[in-house]
Design brief:
single chain, two-stranded antiparallel sheet, 2 domains, 6 helices, mainly alpha
Length: 155
């Protein structure tokens, strides 16, 4: 029963993530954060970014078991939450937020993330390797795109 529930939850989360992916990719491509290919539409209808995102979701679903996908998603969610909290800490004067709450949020996120990473390293080293590969691939692709974009702008 738990597996079926997790399957529906993962399917719903993936489906909910696919819809904004197209518009997000178009926006990011329009400001130069993503390559122009990500902002195009196939057949004038479906966004290329959506197709690529769906393809990556399919690869993850086929290549990893449900526990691995959930673990990867948890780490990414913790990273995003932590980075948003750090960013909020930088603009807290504009938002009126209390610094101690934001520091507490960042600290608790880091503590949970570190404990999760060490637990994953011990119990599921394959997931830890996948997380490192995803991180390195993301940073590498971003670095390569930024370099290529700088060359194209200079030319």
């Amino acid at each position: 029963m738990m597996t079926v529930t997790a399957l529906f939850a993962t399917t719903g989360a993936t489906n909910a993530g696919l819809y904004p992916a197209s518009g997000l990719c178009e926006e990011m491509a329009s400001i130069g954060q993503f390559p122009p290919l990500m902002g195009r539409r196939l057949g004038g209808r479906v966004g290329t970014g959506l197709v690529i995102t769906a393809g990556l979701a399919i690869v993850l679903a086929v290549g990893f078991d449900l526990a691995a996908i959930a673990s990867i998603g948890s780490v990414i969610a913790l990273l995003v939450f932590g980075l948003i909290s750090v960013g909020h800490l930088r603009v807290r004067h504009e938002t009126g937020a209390r610094a101690w709450i934001l520091v507490l949020a960042v600290a608790s996120t880091v503590i949970v993330l570190v404990s999760f990473i060490f637990t994953t390293l011990v119990e599921e080293p394959g997931i830890a390797i996948a997380l490192v590969v995803i991180l390195l691939l993301s940073v590498g692709l971003d670095f390569a795109w930024k370099r290529l974009r700088a060359r194209l702008v200079a030319a």
